[in-house]
Amino acid sequence: MINKILALFCIVLATAWYHGATRIPALASGGDPLGPRAFPMLLAAGLLGCAALLFFEARRQGSPAMERGDTDLRAVGVAIGLIALYFVLFERLGYLLSTMLFMAAGMLCCHANKRVALICALAFPLCSNLLFARLLKVPLPSGTLFS
User: Fold this and answer.
1) Domain that holds residue 12
2) Inter-CA distances, 114 with 107, 109, 135, Å
3) Quick count: other Cβ atoms within 10 Å of Cβ 121?
């Protein structure tokens, strides 16, 4: 049931996003034939496709009754706490260190394999930082602690 509700929410969100994307004004100077609307519309279409897949998968599987126990509330609390801590530490520690800590803690809280969690927590921030800094020429925050 929760997957169907999530899918319907995503459909509403994708529809609103698409509507907002259609209201972006077209470029008067010609330039790019797709204009600034193309990427938001593509995102809306992708979200709509994912929502449809989620809805039909939940419908096909038939969702079992979800039990609301202490574990579910604790997991939600831990996730909210980790996200809040990430936002608090991001400015001080910067992208690399705060993302590494966030990913490692999040994956370990989800009972991931420790080796896989640590490799991913190290590799993703390093690779994404290299991608942004070297390829896209967009520096990510280094944090006030190291400035």
Assistant:
1) 2-61
2) 8, 10, 31
3) 21
CB 95 within 8 A of CB 141: yes
* 33 domain residue, yes or no: yes
Indicate the burial class of 18 (C-beta count within 10 angstroms; 0-12, 13-18, 19 or more): middle
Query: How many of the other CB atoms lie within 10 Å of CB of 15?
Result: 14
* Domain contains 141: no
Rounded to an integer, what distance in angstroms lies between the CA atom of residue 26 and that of residue 43? 18
Q: Which of 73-87, 89-103, 129-143 has the highest mean pLDDT?
A: 89-103
Q: At what angle do helices 38-61 and 2-22 cross, to 10 degrees?
A: 160
Instruction: Judge whether 40 and 17 are in contact, CB under 8 Å.
Output: yes
Rounded Cα distance, 94 and 54, in Å: 35
Contact 103, 120 (CB under 8 A): yes
Q: Given a cut of 80, is residue 75 above it in pLDDT? A: no
